[in-house]
Amino acid sequence: MKIIPIPCLADNYAYLVICRETKEAAIVDASEAGPVLAGVEAARAGSVRDVSAAGREGARPIAIWSTHHHWDHVGGNEEVAKALAIERVLGHASDDGRLPGLTDKLADGDTFKLGTLEVEVRHIPAHTLGAVAYIVRRPGGGEAAVFTGDTMFVAGCGRIFEGDPAMMHASLSKLASLDPATKVYCGHEYTEANLRFAAHVEPSNANVRALAAKARTTREAGQPTVPSTIADELACNPFLRVDSPEIRATLGIPAGASDADALGAIREAKNTFR
Ligand code: ZN
Ligand code: FE
């Protein structure tokens, strides 16, 4: 499998996922048409832009996979689908009516294929009630990726707009239980700000410092910090580390508070952190 991040808007990522065997491809989160169509064109034609290596891949987009209904993730759905004659737009069934162009209404646990790649859908509500993750695996194992939208970011999580902290905890736990080597592709480039917060709440976490140093180098080179891995997130992401005594001490969360209540308190602290 080949995955190409396509920067959109101020700090969004769309992605092109390509099956190397069949060249069938999916667009994850068609944020805005211009950059997505340019990225697909580069992948098809072999021209060299930011999307460099894609050129030699070839790509035949057959579907748009939407992670959730927010405009900065679906704003290009209809124009991209029309321009590329894409007939399938995937999203959670509950987003019917608010997710532009939706054709394939998904539920938790649905599976399908993209060329030879195996795809599994997980419902991960809380940022929005219809948020889904797409887990893509090469058959026979060895390589896996997850598209997390605005539910899990590198070292962070999305704001809880439609759910509650317990729902976000359950959704993040689903993602945390994936194979630790799974690569994490999220919806925004928020990594450096997230790691500043992570370092603030858990100052003795050396993994946070290491990931922050790596992110800084990557951003200075003008590159995306995605993907991380589930292992990175378990080591660094404060929203997966709700039982950390240091995080709880920093934020004054009682040791006996539930994981969901701790997550809610960490989210509240992040909302006002500068
Ligand atoms: Zn969102
Ligand atoms: Fe977003």
Description:
33% of the residues lie in helices and 24% in strands. It has 274 residues and is an alpha/beta fold. A six-stranded mixed β-sheet has the order 1-2-3-4-5-6, covered by helices on one side. Helix 4 crosses helix 9 and helix 5 runs antiparallel to helix 6. Mean pLDDT is 95; it is low at 48-55. Bound molecules: zinc ion (ZN) and fe (iii) ion. Zinc ion binds next to loops.
Helix content: 25-40%
Radius of gyration: 18 Å
- Backbone shape: globular
As a percent range, the share of strand residues is 15-25%
> Number of folding domains?
2
Q: Helices and strands: which structural class? A: alpha/beta
Q: Please name the CATH topology of the largest domain.
A: Metallo-beta-lactamase, Chain A
DSSP summary: helix tally = 9
Distance from N terminus to C terminus (CA atoms, Å) equals 38 Å
| Tally of strands | 14
Order of strands across the main sheet: 1-2-3-4-5-6
Largest sheet: 6 strands, mixed
Secondary-structure element order, as H and E? Answer: EEEHEHHEEEEEEEEHEHHEHHH
What are the defining features of this structure?
single chain, 274 residues, alpha/beta, Metallo-beta-lactamase, Chain A, 6-stranded mixed beta sheet, 33% helix, 24% strand, globular, binds zinc ion, binds fe (iii) ion
